[in-house]
Amino acid sequence: MPLKFVRPAIQRMAGYTPGEQPAPGTRIIKLNTNENPFPPSPKVMEAIRNVQGEQLRRYPDPNSRAFCQMAAKVLGVEPEMIITGNGSDDVLAFALMTFVSPGAVLAYPDPTYSLYPVLADLDEVKTAPVPWLDGWKLPIDALVATKANAIFLANPNAPSGTAVPVDQIEALAKRYDGLVLVDEAYADFADGNCIELVNRYENVVVSRTLSKAYSLAGLRFGFAIGQKHVIAEMNKAKDSYPCDAISIAAATAALADQEYARKTWDHIKRERFRLTTELTRMGWCVIPSQANFLFATVPGGRGKECYEHLKSKGILVRYFDKPGQRDKVRISVGTIEQDDELLALLRAM
Ligand SMILES: Cc1ncc(COP(=O)(O)O)c(C=O)c1O
Questions:
Q1: Segments of the chain with pLDDT less than 70
Q2: 209 Cα nearest atom in ligand 1
Q3: Are 8-40+259-348 and 42-257 equal in CATH topology?
Q4: CATH architecture observed for domain 8-40+259-348
Q5: Would you give the end-to-end CA distance of the chain in angstroms?
Q6: CA of 224 to the centre of ligand 1 (A)
Q7: What order do you get walking across the sheet with 328-332 strand by strand?
Q8: Where are the domains of the chain?
Q9: Are 328 and 320 in contact (CB under 8 A)?
């Protein structure tokens, strides 16, 4: 029996399906949700230890100014061009609320991050998924033709790991009146990013997360970069205190330690290359990735079997039970040791 006091939009929707999160302490190699395989910088742990009781007694800074100053320095923008949230999922949620009215349209190339249609359902926004062109190329004409109020573009994309060149995104932003939100959750593992476009196009907003590149998925900290007057509008739609005092201190320390983060990115890129090469040798078809994961077709189309076999042996990868994806698995890049174990199991399979 449907509950009469629940909004029909909520009753109709299924909600987001997160990747499996085994209970803490379970001995498992976790390569299913694109976490960074390395721990956060020791400076992050130190910043957390240094948080004072007084900082917890009081409300946190609603605008995470310490973080915005640090991020502005690292990215070469101004602090007022940055807004923070409780993970980039939160940033995406209040971006949608800011730019797309109920009943209006959100477009995105498809397949992509499965949270976008969930956020749209929550806000009673219509969706216009537009198939990628062959070779995961950006369908600019078709996206513009949707006449959507906003376009969400994950770049690099999930689950494919592919990235479209910045000049293609610029071409889209030029031809389109609505907002182009470039979700750069994985940009630190890629060859390019769209930060520079933000200065030139007021309809471009870039979102980032500390979950992947800074090993802080458990902290929940994300942010967006846009022109000051655009960020000021988003500021009205965000939660009053989206980031707590501990996460602001930790996230600020993480961005300050670029040297540590970059070492993890270099490792992940080297391992990404090694995994791609080894899997290809074993007859897998691997989509060239610009992210910290691979989306690859299992020989014989045995996607589900592969996922289940690995799980039974203590390695979690992601399997999407969706049309066009059932012959594939998505594998987050791990440490050398984790990837060695994965490859040994796959060779034996
Ligand atoms: C494309 C994309 N954007 C955003 C996120 C969410 O990041 P966060 O942990 O900051 O909410 C993910 C997580 O998997 C993702 O794949």
A1: none
A2: 10
A3: no
A4: Alpha-Beta Complex (3.90)
A5: 46
A6: 13
A7: 285-286, 293-297, 328-332
A8: 8-40+259-348, 42-257
A9: yes
Q: Give CB contacts under 8 A, 24+ apart, made by 190-195.
A: 190/155, 190/156, 190/163, 190/290, 190/291, 191/163, 191/290, 192/163, 192/165, 192/166, 193/166, 194/155, 194/166, 194/169, 195/75, 195/76, 195/77, 195/225
Q: What is the pLDDT of residue 19?
A: 86
User: Nearest-CA neighbor of 44 among 267, 224, 247, 264?
Assistant: 247
> Residue ranges of the alpha helices (H) in 176-257?
195-200, 228-237, 245-256
Q: Would you tell me how many other CB atoms lie within 10 Å of the CB of residue 272?
A: 24
The highest-level CATH class for domain 42-257 is: alpha beta
The first and second tokens of residue 8, run together, are 């029909």
C-alpha distances (whole Å) from 290 to each of 68, 143, 154, 320, 325 are 26, 23, 12, 20, 19
What pLDDT is recorded for position 310?
Answer: 97
| Per-residue confidence (pLDDT) for residue 189, from 0 to 100 | 98
**Residue ranges lining ligand 1, Cβ < 6 Å:** 34, 87-89, 113, 154, 158, 183, 185, 209, 211, 217, 222
Distance of CA 89 from the midpoint of ligand 1 (Å): 6
DSSP of 213-224: TTS-TTT--EEE
Span 207-249, pLDDT tens digits: 999 999 999 999 999 999 999 999 999 999 999 999 999 999 9
